[in-house]
Amino acid sequence: MAEVVYDSASRIYTPGAKPAVNKLSLDIADGEFVVFVGPSGCGKSTALRMLAGLEEIDGGEIRIGGDNMVGVPSRDRDIAMVFQNYALYPNKTVAENMDFPLKMRGLPKSERDEKVRAAAETLGLTEFLDRKPRALSGGQRQRVAMGRAIVREPRVFLMDEPLSNLDAKMRVGTRAEIAALQQRLGVTTIYVTHDQVEAMTMGHRVAVLRLGELQQFASPVELYDRPVNAFVAGFIGSPSMNLFTVPVADGGVRLGGALVPLPASARSAISAAGLESVTLGIRPEQWTANGPSDEGVPAQVTVVEELGSDAFLYGTLADAPDQPIVVRAPGRSGAHLGDKITLRTITDDLHLFHPDTGARLN
Ligand SMILES: Nc1ncnc2c1ncn2[C@@H]1O[C@H](COP(=O)(O)OP(=O)(O)OP(=O)(O)O)[C@@H](O)[C@H]1O
Ligand SMILES: [Mg+2]
Fold it and tell me: In this structure, which CATH number among 2.60.40.3710, 3.40.50.970, 2.40.50.140, 3.30.470.20 belongs to the domain 239-353?
């Protein structure tokens, strides 16, 4: 087990072009479960592959357990990877698949058998040890791939979208299994996904990347409550945060013809930045939908997503029909398509960002 440090690490595929990973710095603690998340092409896999030794490091350093990995071949880094296409050997049994990396290492048979047995036990694969992969479900195959990584007892596990071949239900179950397994084994793990729900539910901390640049590295709750910029604010959370660029007014900001009040601290942050307009962020649960009224922001419902426990009302602002909104309402709220509603914020702890740079103001 070991800590992992990215120290201003860069990867430049094409000289002169924008780096795929630009000066990434992260301190990952021993035993931590860290998720890299971000949209397609943001550099998640590249960052992971740099750690694995499958990609050059064009600047900076990556250290595992304090040792600089620049120039160290992949096989000497003491890591194990699980990919989306985990490619089991079709003609080998589950046991032989899991045994393979140990055999390659030349360990004695008795020791290998014991490690395979223990890993199978951990993963609930004992009864499948003699089967071939084709006789397993997608989730079971995925666990064999995990087993092949576990038997190696690496210092670091690296996983790149390991669940993306599974159906939605299996993904949720396996996601919980991997998180529990990581907790039990205590091995430093870096997990790549483009799915923010996976990131939020699995990671101790989450690194949000965009265009090769680290945006924020924080716990899921911190990302949700205090996103550092409008990009993270919009990326983390489902449904997404409502984001509006709005004029500053006395006591708050104006949205859809109504005043949204802001606390003194937020107002002074805005005036300290000398801004006449700001990007306002409101999570779907930070406001309530009421019937037509003089108070609040008028809007119209275009879609009701009834989930049973909650309902999400999608709509548009009455005086800005191209401005979409989403509000969380109690389940079975009785809202209908076409309803006119007014929105009132139920907290003044709203999110404010610079309208040009997107940086958090409050
Ligand atoms: N071998 C390569 N040669 C040149 N450019 C590459 C190479 N591999 C990746 N890139 C580019 O580097 C950037 C980051 O790619 P990367 O695979 O790390 O993205 P990602 O975040 O893993 O995306 P996804 O979610 O689609 O897997 C992309 O713009 C990609 O086109
Ligand atoms: Mg990728």
Answer: 2.40.50.140
